[in-house]
Amino acid sequence: MLWNNIVIAIRNLRKNKVFAAINISGLALGLTIYVFGGLLVEYEESHDQGFKNTPYTYTIGSVASPMLDVGVDRFNAVFMAVGPIIAAESPDIAAVARTRGIEYLVSTGIESFYENIRFADPEFLQIFDFEYLYGDADALLDPTGILFTESMAIKHFGKTDVLGETVSFDNEFDFHVAAVIKDVAANTHFHSILSDTGLGVVAPVRALNRLRDYDADAGDWNNLSFGDITYVMLPESLDQAWLQSQMNSIYERLVPDSQKEVISAFEVNRLQDANTAVWDMIGLPVIGVVSLLSLMILIIACVNYTNLATAQSLGRSREVGMRKTMGATQRQLLLQFLTESLVIATIAMVIAIAALEVIIPLFNNATDKIMTLDYLKTLPWLLLTTALVGLCAGLYPAWLITRTNPIEALRDTARKGRKSSKVRSVMIGAQFAISAFMLALVTIVFMQNDRVKEGSYIFPRSEIYTIDRLRVEGISDKLPTLRRELEALLNVDSVAYSSQVPFEQNNSQLGVSLQPGDDAGEFVLMNMRMSPEFLDAYDIPIIAGRNLGEEVSNDKQTDDDTTALNVLVNELALPLFGVTRAVDAVNKRFYSTDDDDGTSREFIVVGVVPTQNIVGLFNREKPWMYQYVPESFRIGSVRITGGNIMDTVENIEDIWNRVIPDYPIQGRFLDDVFEDVYQILRLMNAALAGFAFVALSLALIGLFGLAAFMAAQRTKEIGVRKVLGASSLQIARLLVWQFSTPVLWALLVALPAAYFGSRTYLNFFADRIESPLPILIAAGLVAVLLAWATIAGHAIRIASSNPITALRYE
Amino acid sequence: MLKLHNMYKIYQTDEVETIALNGVNLEIAQGDFVAIMGPSGCGKSTLLNIIGMLDNPSEGDYFFFDENIAGYNESQRAEIRKQNIGFIFQSFNLIEELTVAENIELALLYHNMPSAERKKRVNSVMDRMGIAHRANHMPGQLSGGQQQRVAVARAVVGDQPLILADEPTGNLDSVHGQEVMELLRSLNKEGTTIVMVTHSPAHADYAHRRVNLFDGHIVTENTRAA
C-alpha cells in the first residue's frame, strides 16, 4: 500500500511537471535557508566545545549604567581590579584569569609585526587546555615568558621550534618564548565577530608592570573594553547561580562608589555563550533574528506548497470520487495524499542538502568559519524537519480533498474551489505579509545605514590618511620632526596629532563641574586630546574665541598640572555654563571631578567649535572638550588635497621610514577606520536583504503558480464574460484584482509590524532616519507591483485568448 | 441581416487537417428563425461560432448588415458582437459564483450602462421569464429548466437583434425544453432573429427554416410557412 502510494505520488509529479517543479523548488529553497540558518545558529552557539573545562567556565560581564552612555548595554568584560577580588573572596573557585588585549610591535630582530597581544593571568592556561607543541601550561608563570601559536611562530620565525627564542615588544622589552601551542580552532570565542583577533601571542598580565608601569596584581577601575574577558572556572560542585550571588555580593561591598555610577551590576555568563554574547551586548539580537527569519522562510515555503497543492488537488476530485466510490476510506486517501507531500518534502530536502554541500564550503571560505553538515548529528533533526514540513504542508489539501462525499467529488469542482479559495487567499496574504515585512525592514535598515554613512561625510574621510601607534617612546619624541617633514610635502595640507580620530569607538570621558571639589557625575565631557592643527585637518571652524596655539602659555599641557589648562569645547557643552550663545562661554572656568583622590584640574574655555559627531555611527552627539596634550597623541591625521593620492601616501611612507626607521608605519585612510565599524552594519543589511529576497521570491513563485491555476479554473467564467463583451483589459483587471486583495490585506498587517520591528534596529542609533513611514509605503508599493507583474502575465494571456477555447472546456 | 459567402473553416493540427466548413453559403434575414441540424461533427457549432463572431473563418466573406467582418480582429468583433448578438448555450454557462440577477446583469456590465438602468432592465427581464422570485439564488440551486431561463434572460436583456442558441434544450427534459422553445418563439415574434443549433426535429419545427449540415456542406434547406 505504502509503496503503491509512493509510486502514485511520483507519477503525479511527472504528470504535472511545471507544478511539481514549482512545488519542489520552492520547498527546497525554503529548506535550504532553514537548515543553513539552523546550522549557523548551532555553530555560533556551540563554540568552545573543544575545551574540556568549558562546562565549568564562566565569564564575568558588566551591565553599563545609563550614565556611561556609550551606546552599549553590557560588556563581556569587567575592570581588571575585579579578578583579584573574586579570587580573594572565594577560595572555592578553581581558577580566575583576567585577559587584556593590547597591540605591540613584536620583533624577532629580523622582522617586526604589530600584534594584538593577549595579556593573561597564568591561570588562563589552566582553564584552557591548549595543545602544546613545545613548553607547557606553566608558560605564563614567568613574567618574561610568552606563548605563541603555531602559525604565529611561523609568521615571525619561519618555524615552530622556537622555544627560548627572544622577541621584543616595541623594540624595548624582551620576552622569551615559553610555549608554542597548536592554532586555536575557528569555532572558539577568541574568533568572535566583534573581537576577531584570534589568539596569536599570549603574554603574562604581570609583564604590564614592566611594559607600562601597570600594577597588574591590583588591576584598575578605569578601562573597560570588549574582549578583555575575565574567566572564572568553578569546581563541579558549584554552579552559575552561586557565582552570580558571589558577584552580586562583591558588587555591593567592594566596588567603589564612583564605579557604581558606571557599572550597575556584574553578570555571570557561561563561556559557551561568550561567542554570541557580543550581539546581546550591543543590543542587536542577531542570532535570534537569524533563527526567526529562517523559520519564517520555511513557513513561507510550506504555505506556498500548501497553497499550490490545494489548488491542484481540486483537479483531482474526480480521482478521489472514483476511489471513494470503489471503497477507499477517508483515512486511506488521507494517507495517500500525505505520502505524496512527504515524497515531495523528501525530494526537496535532498536537493536542499545537495545545495548546502555547495554553499557551506563557500560560506566557510568567505567568513573563515568551519561549519560542517554533520549528517550523523543532524540526521534526527533533518528527518524530523522533512516529516513536519511534509505533514504540515500536505495536511490541509489532503483533508480538503478527501473529506467530501464521493458524489459531490465526482460532480462539481467549482463550488469546492470557491470554499477553499478563501483559505488560499489567507495563505497568500500570510506569505506576502512575511515578505513585505522583511522587505520593509531591509529597506529601513538600508536607509538608516545610508544615513549613518551620509553623516560620516562631515569629515573629509577620503582625504585623511591616519597613522596609528604613535604613543610609543621611540616615536613620540620624533613627532615634531615628522610633522615638519610631512607638511613640506606638495599635496599635504596639514598634519595633526590626536588621541583618537573620528569613527574610532573610544569613549574617553571626564566628569566636570563649575565648582572645584564637587561630587562626580553632574556633567560629563568627552575628551579629545589633539594638536591645534586638528581643526584645520578636519575642517572644524571656530565659532567663538580662538584655537589653541603652540606658543600661548597654558594652551598646551605640561608636566605641571596645577595651573589651569586652556581648552576648546563644542556647542553641546554650553549648558554646563548656563549660556546659550557660544561667545558667552569663552573665558568660563570649570573643574574635573573625576579623580578618586579628590584632586581636580581647572580648565578655561578659550574657544567654541560646532557640535560634530566625532565617534559617529550609532552614537549620538555629545559635549566634547578639546585639549592640547602631546603625551596622549596616539594617532596622526595627514590631510591630503589634490595630486595623486597614492603617490602622496608613498611619499609619506618614505618620510616615516626615514624619520622613524625602527617601527613600521601603521597607516590607513579615515575611510577604512569608518569601514571597520560600518561593515558590520552592512553585513547585517546584506544578510537581511538575502532573506527578504528569498522570501519575496518564494511568495512570487507561489503567486505565479496559483494565478496560473486559478486562471485555468476560471476559464469558463472568463469565456462567458468575453462572449458577453468584456474586453481583454477588463478580464485582466478582474484576475489581477482577485489576487491583489489578499496582498493588500497582507500589507495592512506587515507594514505596522515592520514599523515596530524596525524600531529595534533604529533604537540602536542616536541619529535616526526621520520617519520610516514613506519607506514602509514604498516597500509596500514594491511588493504590490511585483505581485501585479507576476499575475499580469497570466491574466493577459488568459484574457486575450479566444473565448471559444475557453468555452470548449466543457 | 447576415450573409455567408463561400465560407471555409479548416482546423490544422500537427498531422491532420480537419475541414469543418466546406464552402458554406447562407443568408439570414432579419426576423428569421433558423434551425441548423445535422449529425455530430458536421460543423454546426463551428458555423454558429463564426456567425456569433467568436471565431474567424479560414476563408470566405461574412457580411453582417452589409459589413464584411471576415478579417476583423478579436476586439473589433467583440464590439459588434456586444451590440448585436445574444448567446444561449447547451450547458447554460452561468457563473457559479454569481446570483441569478448578477448573472443576467453581466450581459449589461460591459455596455457602459448606469447601474440603475441595468437593475431596471434585469428586473424587467426576470419578470418576463418568470424567474423574479429566484433573483438572489445561486445557479446551483436552480433546476436545469430554470437555469436555462436565466441563460435566455441573459441573452435577451441587452436587446440584441440576433440570438444564437447552441442546443438550448440539449440538457433539458422535454417539458422544460418545450418551455424554452416557447420562450424563443415569443422572442422571435417580437422581432428578434434567432439561429439555433439542435438535434431535436420537434424543436426544429419551431423554426421557419431548417438548414441541414453534413460534413461541412449545407445539404438541404427547407422553409416552412410561418
What keyword list fits this structure?
heterodimer; A: 810 residues; alpha+beta; six-stranded mixed beta barrel; six-stranded mixed barrel; 26 helices; 16% strand; globular; B: alpha/beta; six-stranded mixed beta sheet; four-stranded antiparallel beta sheet
Structure description:
The complex is a heterodimer of chains A (810) and B (226). Chain A is an alpha+beta fold and 810 residues long. In chain A, the strands form 3 sheets. In chain A, strands 3-4-9-6-8-7 form a 6-stranded mixed β-barrel. In chain B, strands 6-7-8-3-9-10 form a 6-stranded mixed sheet, with helices on both faces. Chain B has a 4-stranded antiparallel sheet with strand order 2-1-4-5, covered by helices on one side. The A-B interface holds A 412, 414-415, 418, 716-717, 719-728, 730, 800, 802-804, 807, 810 and B 49, 52, 54-55, 74-75, 78, 81-82, 87, 89, 91, 93-97, 106-107, 109-111, 140, 154.
Topology readout:
The complex is a heterodimer of chains A (810) and B (226).
Chain A: H1 2-15, H2 17-45, E1 57-64, E2 74-75, H3 82-89, E3 95-107, E4 112-120, H4 124-127, E5 132-135, E6 145-149, H5 150-157, E7 166-169, E8 173-181, E9 201-204, H6 207-212, E10 230-233, H7 240-254, H8 257-260, E11 263-270, H9 274-281, H10 286-314, H11 317-325, H12 330-367, H13 375-402, H14 406-411, H15 414-456, E12 464-468, H16 473-476, H17 479-487, E13 492-498, E14 509-513, E15 523-529, H18 533-537, E16 544-545, E17 565-570, H19 574-577, H20 582-585, E18 589-592, E19 602-609, E20 624-627, E21 635-640, H21 645-659, E22 666-669, H22 670-713, H23 715-723, H24 728-762, H25 773-799, H26 803-807
Helix pairs in contact in A: 1-2, 1-12, 2-10, 2-12, 2-22, 10-13, 10-15, 10-22, 12-13, 15-22, 15-24, 15-25, 17-21, 22-25, 24-25
Chain B: E1 2-12, E2 17-28, E3 33-37, H1 44-51, E4 59-64, E5 67-68, H2 74-84, E6 85-89, H3 100-109, H4 115-129, H5 144-156, E7 162-166, H6 174-189, E8 193-197, H7 201-204, E9 209-214, E10 217-223
Parallel strand pairs in B: 3-8, 3-9, 6-7, 7-8
Antiparallel strand pairs in B: 1-2, 1-4, 4-5, 9-10
Helix pairs in contact in B: 3-4, 3-5, 4-5, 5-6
